[in-house]
Design goal:
This protein has 534 residues and is α/β, with parallel strands linked by helices. A hairpin with a 2-residue loop joins strand 2 and strand 3. The chain is globular. This is ATP-dependent 6-phosphofructokinase.
């Protein structure tokens, strides 16, 4: 998770959220009050603490399930929390004009800033009241695999979020727009694809002034980093390469300096590509603009290769990462299978969530052991990973381990070091497993040939595959549609295969993680055949 430095963005607050009920515990699944029912993993009547961004926390009474109107109150609370900010909240008299976006004419439309000269009505717009269903599974019991329930009876409550897409009315005149794009954090497949389609869609609306801010938020304050003019001609083929045309960096100046720079440059649309920390920064920029009564649309596009953004099916770059990880896993398998008592260890991305390791293991069919941050394991002991490796060598002759980078950190020395984003610097669990495996087999007098592969930077730098290319295209387009529709402080994502707008605070509360009781993790365990290493 990358974090904007300054103004307190990215700080965390411990919030007590546990309420016991018989053999279950009510937990907040979002920063502002939704409750989910899951089996307790801590003693009854104890209080569970979850770390969450301070910006996402507010005082609120827990839902009283004994209240006969609790369901109605829950629905109202949910609707309030997932309502997306609009410039008319601050500028009630803001002018709404007919949209300049219409695919009956695909050339830039600056000369038609008041709308297309057509008497025909185009039916390609999204109604502001259109919604997308956030949850689609109706659980009948809290004990169902992966169950997420609001109360002990798993009462079904429809949870709707705003559908993304072009609106019939827009709140910015294209000829008066100066749009800026910034990419923050680390590299991720698909960055150039998103940049490309933001620029192309802006031009279709009629915007002529589009710039890129170089090297993340830093580009707002570093006078040696001039903004980069962008146009369809500039971005036409950038999706054919990995990386970011604009460059990336972690951290950045205080929010006030960023907004000062935006005012000075005349930027009134800002598109921010990044993860949880970057989105926290975007939300802080949005709030500062509101405080200064600036008519600015700030729209995020969630970029995290780890796929750890809340509520969304997936984030761009994830599919590509899983696909590229197959090369590393297959190489480890060939090395292990070709050696006498060969063991291949592959470390994949995933600081706090094991989605890449889990999905890559499932896809490959060559992994014997998958280790992720969400599931505790022991290396040593009668039920440890090393004991199972011995069994695999005896029965199969070789083995492959896939481990997420954030797994098993308790086995490593804690240096308390942090990177520029404020993230804890992780120890290398892959090297540790390699060393402990060699040591273990030497101690028991069994020959073992252990190979370690870390493809992290190779995976991050590749271009997006076809699946991610489509996702990036739609995300980029919908980001522009959201900005022109007058929304700000939002991000765009895919939810149950449909695209939606979400208020940023609802997606940055904490990182999404693999549910050890989910069907997908159970499928992974079925594929690998591994036991519980506890």
């Amino acid at each position: 998770m990358d974090t904007l430095i300054g103004a307190g963005v990215g700080s965390t607050t411990a919030v007590a959220v546990g309420v016991t009920h018989k053999n279950s515990v009510l937990l907040r699944s979002a920063p502002i009050g939704s409750l989910i029912l899951r089996k307790p993993i801590f003693p009854a009547n104890s209080l569970r603490i979850r770390r969450r961004p301070a910006a996402a926390v507010r005082a609120e009474a827990a839902i009283d399930l004994s209240d006969p109107d609790w369901k109605l109150k829950y629905e109202r609370d949910f609707e309030e929390r997932f309502n997306i900010p609009h410039i008319t909240d601050v500028f009630p008299d803001a002018e709404a004009i007919r949209s300049t976006f219409c695919l009956k004419m695909r050339s830039p439309t600056a000369e038609f800033s008041g709308g297309y000269p057509s008497d025909e009505e185009w039916h390609g717009y999204i109604n502001n009241k259109d919604r997308v269903l956030l949850k689609v599974i109706k659980y009948s019991s809290p004990t169902s695999a992966g169950a997420v329930c609001i109360d002990p009876d798993c009462t079904w409550i429809e949870q709707w979020v705003h559908r993304a897409g072009p609106r019939e009315k827009i709140y910015f005149r294209p000829e008066k727009v100066k749009a800026a794009i910034v990419t923050c954090g680390g590299l991720c497949p698909g960055l150039n694809d998103v940049i490309r389609h933001i620029v192309i869609t802006l031009e279709i609306y009629g915007v002529k002034n589009v710039v890129g801010i170089p090297f993340g938020y830093r580009g707002f304050s570093d006078k040696n980093l001039p903004e980069m003019p962008l146009s369809r001609k500039v971005v036409q083929n950038i999706h054919l390469s990995g990386g970011s045309l604009l460059g990336v960096s972690r951290g950045g100046p205080p929010v006030g300096e960023i907004v000062d720079s935006m005012e000075e440059r005349g930027i009134n649309m800002l598109f921010v590509l990044g993860g949880n920390g970057t989105h926290a920064g975007a939300n802080a920029i949005h709030n500062e603009c509101l405080k200064r009564r600036m008519k600015v649309a700030v729209v995020g596009v969630p970029k995290t290769i780890d796929n750890d953004i809340l509520h969304m099916d997936k984030t761009f770059g994830f599919d590509t990462a899983v696909e590229e990880a197959q090369r590393a896993i297959n190489s480890a398998y060939i090395e292990a299978h070709s050696a006498y008592h060969g063991i291949g260890v592959v470390k994949l991305m995933g600081r706090s969530s094991g989605f890449i390791a889990m999905q890559a293991s499932l896809a490959s069919g060559q992994v014997d052991i998958c280790l992720i941050p969400e599931v505790h394991f022991n290396l040593h002991g009668p039920h440890g990973v090393l004991k199972h490796l011995k069994y695999l060598i005896e029965t199969k002759g070789s083995a492959v381990i896939c481990v997420a980078e954030g797994a098993g950190q308790s086995f490593l020395e804690n240096t308390n070091a942090k990177d520029a984003s404020g993230n804890k610097v992780l120890g290398d669990i892959g090297v540790h497993i390699q060393q402990e495996t060699k040591k273990y087999f030497k101690e028991i007098g069994v020959s073992a040939d252990v190979k370690y592969i870390d493809p992290t930077y190779m995976i991050r730098a590749v271009r997006a595959n076809a699946s991610d290319g489509i996702l990036c295209t739609v995300l980029g387009q919908n980001a522009v549609h959201g900005a022109f529709a007058g929304y700000s402080g939002i991000t765009v994502g895919i939810i149950n295969t449909h695209y939606a707008y979400l208020p940023i605070p609802q997606v940055i509360a904490y990182a999404k993680s693999v549910d050890p009781n989910s069907r997908m993790w159970h499928r992974c365990l079925t594929s690998t055949g591994q036991p519980d290493f506890i």
